[in-house]
Amino acid sequence: xxxxxxxxxxxxxxxxxxxxxxxxxxxxxxxxxxxxxxxxxxxxxxxxxxxxxxxxxxxxxxxxxxxxxxxxxxxxxxxxxxxxxxxxxxxxxxxxxxxxxxxxxxxxxxxxxxxxxxxxxxxxxxxxxxxxxxxxxxxxxxxxxxxxxxxxxxxxxxxxxxxxxxxxxxxxxxxxxxxxxxxxxxxxxxxxxxxxxxxxxxxxxxxxxxxxxxxxxxxxxxxxxxxxxxxxxxxxxxxxxxxxxxxxxxxxxxxxxxxxxxxxxxxxxxxxxxxxxxxxxxxxxxxxxxxxxxxxxxxxxxxxxx
Length: 306
Fold this sequence. Notes:
The protein is mostly helical. It has helices at residues 3-34, 41-59, 62-82, 93-115, 141-163, 165-175, 177-182, 187-209, 219-234, 239-264, 270-295; strands at 131-134, 137-140. The protein has a two-stranded antiparallel ribbon. Helix 1 (3-34) packs antiparallel against helix 8 and helix 3 runs antiparallel to helix 8.
């Protein structure tokens, strides 16, 4: 394998990891702070993609499509929280799993009824369709833009959680919800803000991935599984853990699908190497999770109670 191809796959792994982070950041906040298991998070990612695709097809504005994808997912998150999910916060995790799984199925069927079962495609504007040279390697400009947006989101979340008053309330609520409520803070609306923020990040991820992948019903189901792996590896409730865990998972998954078949092809037939390599690569992320949990059961960067 040439160094140029390896570098390009590493960039692809970084871009995939950034996409996973956009989902994992919101999910780990909701799970770690509110102790709420939201299996509908993948559906919010899907809805963001559909909102963006529908806006783009009607207006032709890519920027507006991204904004509507993010804002639409946030608004949907507020509606879901205030009209149903908030009643599940004190309930058992099994109740949360069943309810949010039902919402996920409902959203999948809703998009089939509205947009049909056929994939929907978004095209990139000419300004973002070009390639740029990264260390003498041509790479799509739009994928670099996804990486940049993810890094800016990570920085923004860090500043929000660590440097603002609302971030202080979020951290305090994670440690002692009763005390924060006794001080006059409306915990219900704080939870709604956290849930809407997570939904918006999922919608942003779906909107930005629309031009790369086809937008179709159920597209959030498979990436939800990988997102859960990310937050388990990184540490539940940790933004830093979600970020680093997503990058590790993205690189392991992408490089594994390239490197493993190449290594096996040196001693096995090409067809067998490709089949076996794909199977091993698919397991690599889960093997990594098992190893991490065996060494650090709370994840790489568990949240410290203050």
